Amino acid sequence: MKTRFRPAPVAILSCLGVLPLQSPAQSFAVLNETVVSAARVEQPLADVLPSLTLITRTDIERTQAPSLADLLQGEAGFEFGRNGGPGNVTSFFLRGAASTNLVVLIDGVRTQVDGFGNLTAIDIPLSQIDRIELLRGNASALYGEAAVGGVIQIFTRPARERPGAHGSATVGSRGTRGVTAGYSGRADDLSLRLDVGTEHTDGFSAMNPAQNGRVNPDRDPVDRHYFSGRLVKKVSSDLDLGLYTSVVRTDVNFDNGSSPAVATDVQRLSRETALVNVYAQGRLSPDWRSRLDLSRGVLSTRDFLNGQPNVGSFSAGRLAGDQNALRWSNTLAQGNHRVINFGLELNDEFYTSDATSSGYRTRRQMTGYFAGMNQTVGALSLQGNLRVDSVDVNKFGTTAVRSWDQPSGLLGLGWKLSPSWRLSGSVSSGFRAPSAGDLSNNVDLKPETHRSGEAGVSWASGADSLRLVAFQTRTDDAIYYQNVSPFTPINIGKVRNRGLELSGRVQWLGNSLRYSLVSQDPWNETDGTRLARRARDYGSLDLTRVLGATTVGGRLYVSGDRFDSGAIDKTLGGYTTLALYATHALAREWTLRARAENVFDRNYQLANGYNTPPAGVWVTLAYQQP
C-alpha cells in the first residue's frame, strides 16, 4: 500500500483571504495574555515560538462542553477517540501522536497516568479549570519523557478577590443532572477556594449491538463526584505558600464485546483519582523567581461484572497507582532581552494490577534535569532548551530491571518581518520510555525516539490573528500492541506524520470567528497503514455574537474518515457535527446557559463498534455572589 504527502486543501489558502485591514493599534485581550507552557517562562501569547493555543475561562463557559475532550475538539492539532460517551476510556492525539505520547499538567505538576500510560485527566471537571494551554509538537526538552506529541497544561481556578459563594445546576437530555457549589475569596494574607460537585447521566449504550451480538443494549449511565480546595498564605511580598487538593470519583457503565461477554452482562468501571500538592513560590532576588512543588497522586480503578469484582482474563481487574513527585523550577531574567530557566523533577511511581492474565507489580522512577534560554536580539527571537531524563523500571517478582538515560533538545528561531508578521521554526528531539504495563507484557521493549520540526508564519493585527504551520515528526522503535494474539506490545519500527496546520480568529460583521484546519498524513511506515483513529483532514469553525445581555454561537466540526486499528477493513467514516450555545445574564448574580449538541443527530463513531452521543439539549443556571 503506497502513500504520499498530500498538500493541505485549497480551503487553507483561501482562509488567508479573511485577513482584514485593521490597525495594529487595536487591542485584543487574548493575544496579550501571558502564557508559560511554550518555554517554561512567562511570555505574551503573541511572542511564543512553538505552536500554542490558549483556552480561557470565558471560552469554557461560552461553549459549555461536557468534558475536557469535547472542549479541546476543534482546536488545531487535537483529535480524540472514545469508547462510548464522556467518562469512557478516551485517547488524545496531539499532532497525530499516540495518546501515551503527551503530558498533561495541572498547575505545572505532571498528572498521574495508569500503568499503561493511559490518561486519568479525562475526569477533571471543567468547572474547576481557569484556563488551558495546548502546546503542540515535541516538548520533551521542556517537560521530559512522553511529551513528544505535546503538552496540555491545565490551570485550576484561583480565589476571587472578594469573598463569595458560587454554584450551578444543570438538567438536560438523557436524564442528565448536575450540581456544583463553592466558596472563594481573599482576606488579609490568606486566600481560599473550595469546590464540590456531582453529575449524573443515564447515557446511552456504549457499543452498537447491531455490530456485536454480545453487547448489552441497555443505557450505560455515568456518575461523577468531585471536590477541590486551594489555600494560599502570603508570607511576604516575596513568598507564597500554597496547598491544592482534589478528589474525583467516576463510575461508568460500559460494554465489552469480547468473548466471553454476553448480551445480558452489566459492566461497570469505578475510577478514583486524588492529588495533593504543596508548594512555595517567590523571589530569591529581584530577577530570580523560584517554585518548589511536592505532590502525591493516587489512582484506583476497579472493574465490576454483574455487580461483582471482575478479575477475569478479559478485564483490567483492579489497577492501583501511587505517584510521589518533587519539582523545582526557576526563571532568571538577565536584562530586558534574556530569560534563563532551569530546574529538576523527580517522580516515583508504583503500579499494581490483579488481573488474572496480566497482573503485575512495578515501580517506575524518573529523574529529569532541564535548562533553557529565551533571547531577543532586535527582530530575532531565540529559544533553546536541553533536558536529560533517567527512567528506571523494576518489575517485582522478576529479574527485569530496565534503565534508560536520554537527552532531549529544542532549538527555535523567530524573525519579526513587521509589527504584524513573523516567521518561526523549530527542531526538537525526545523520547518515551515503555510504561509499567508495557514492560509487564514485554521486558525487551526499547524506548521510542522522536525527531520533530516545524516552520510557520503568523500574523496579528488588532482583534485578529492567523498562524500557518508546516510540521513533521518521525518516530523510531514506536511501541504498539499487536492486533493478534497474544496482544503484547512490540517495537514496530518507524511511524511519522507531516502536514499543514492553520488556526486563527477574526472579528467579522460584529461576530467573533475562530477557525482551524489541519491536513496531515499520519503513517505507519513499517506495515504501510494509516495510524489508527487519526483523520487526514479535519477542522472547525466557531462563531460567536454578543446581543446585549445575550451571547449566542455555534461550533461546526468536520472530520475525514479514519482507520480504526490501522486496518482498512475497519474504516470509520467522516462526519460533521454542529453544537449551538447561548448565555444570558439574568441579573448581576445569575446567568442562564443553554447548549444543543449534535444538532443534526449525526450517527458517527470515534472507535469501531462504539456509539457517540446523539442529539441533546442542556440548560444550566449559574450563580456567582458579587
Protein model, in words:
The chain has 626 residues and is mostly beta strands. It contains 6 helices and 38 strands. The protein has a 22-stranded antiparallel beta barrel. A 5-stranded mixed sheet has the order 3-8-9-6-7. A two-stranded antiparallel ribbon has the order 1-2. A hairpin with a 4-residue loop joins strand 18 and strand 19 (338-353). The longest helix is centred in the N-terminal third of the chain and has 7 residues, at 57-63. The protein is globular. Mean pLDDT is 89; it is low at 1-29.
Write the layout of secondary structure elements.
Layout: H1 10-15, H2 29-32, E1 34-35, E2 43-44, E3 51-55, H3 57-63, H4 68-72, E4 78-82, E5 90-94, E6 103-106, E7 109-110, E8 129-136, H5 140-143, E9 150-156, E10 164-172, E11 176-187, E12 190-204, E13 220-236, E14 239-254, E15 267-285, E16 288-305, E17 308-309, E18 318-333, E19 338-353, E20 360-377, E21 380-395, E22 401-416, E23 421-432, H6 436-441, E24 448-461, E25 464-476, E26 479-481, E27 489-491, E28 494-508, E29 511-520, E30 523-524, E31 529-530, E32 537-547, E33 550-559, E34 562-563, E35 571-572, E36 575-585, E37 590-597, E38 616-624
Parallel strand pairs: 6-9
Antiparallel strand pairs: 1-2, 3-8, 4-5, 6-7, 8-9, 10-11, 10-38, 11-12, 12-13, 13-14, 14-15, 15-16, 16-17, 16-18, 18-19, 19-20, 20-21, 21-22, 22-23, 23-24, 24-25, 25-28, 26-27, 28-29, 28-30, 29-32, 30-31, 32-33, 33-36, 34-35, 36-37, 37-38
